[in-house]
Amino acid sequence: MIPSKTKHQTIIYILPEAKMKLDAYVGLAKGEISGLGKVIRLKKGTLLIQDLFIFDQKCTPSETVLDSSAVADFMTDMISAGEDPSCVRLWWHSHADMKVFWSTTDDATIFGFNNEWMLSLVTNFFGDYLCRVDSFQPMQMTAYDVPLQVFLEMEAKTLEILGKEVETKVKHTVPKTKTYAGGNNNGHVPTDGVDIFEVVEYSED
Ligand SMILES: [Zn+2]
Question: Which domain of life is it from (predicted)?
Fold first, then answer.
């Protein structure tokens, strides 16, 4: 099957903790490594990687082949832990010290997921990232080269808590009256001398 090469304005966001976890897994592995991850849809065309996982795997120096029984075990464990396996929409892997690209083995792995859509990410030791989104319903389509960005937006609830903290702890002092040195009292900064002004009174409002 030849995938269609369409460019989209889609953005893949990743939570900072998940990005650090990804880079740590990749950096700690001697060669290739692969895993899955949780993804949620934020709005149309925007996906957020929330977490990543690894499981038992055998990787050659140049190839990662996903062990379907290890994936099945992982999904079963998720269900028994009361988690929803339908949010597992990310397949990620590292090419170690090789360039990032989609090999025919990678394509076969992606097409092997029995999902409506799948987000895939390939990275390496040099911090290169390549993301693609494949949808399989109602037809197979691939969005290549989707940019990856660390999600730095704060949750509205956290922002509200911080706003209240600033409101209660931080008081701003505002100068009420200003008198300029040099006898110029008409409110203009003197132009013929050093611009020094003296604050006579502060307000605590
Ligand atoms: Zn690959």
Answer: Bacteria
In whole angstroms, give the CA distance from residue 3 to residue 135: 10
What spacing in Å lies between the alpha carbon of 81 and ligand 1's midpoint? 30
Residues, beta carbon < 5 Å, ion ligand 1: 103, 106
Q: How far is the CA of 162 from the centre of ligand 1 (A)?
A: 42
Q: What is the pLDDT of residues 1-21, one digit of tens each?
A: 455 555 546 899 999 999 999
What's the CA-to-centroid distance between 154 and ligand 1, angstroms?
Answer: 33
Residue 78 contacts residue 87 (beta carbons within 8 Å): no
Query: What pTM value is reported for the model?
Result: 0.71
How far is the C-alpha of 79 from the C-alpha of 85, rounded, in Å? 7
List pLDDT tens digits, range 28-45: 999 999 999 999 998 877
Q: What are the tokens at 150?
A: 């660390």
Domain ranges of the chain: 5-150, 156-203
What is the fold, at CATH topology level, of the domain defined by 5-150? Answer: Cytidine Deaminase; domain 2 (3.40.140)
The length of the chain in residues reads 205
Q: Using the mean position of ligand 1's atoms as its centre, give its distance from the Cα of residue 95 in Å.
A: 6
How far does residue 43's CA lie from ligand 1's centre (Å)?
28
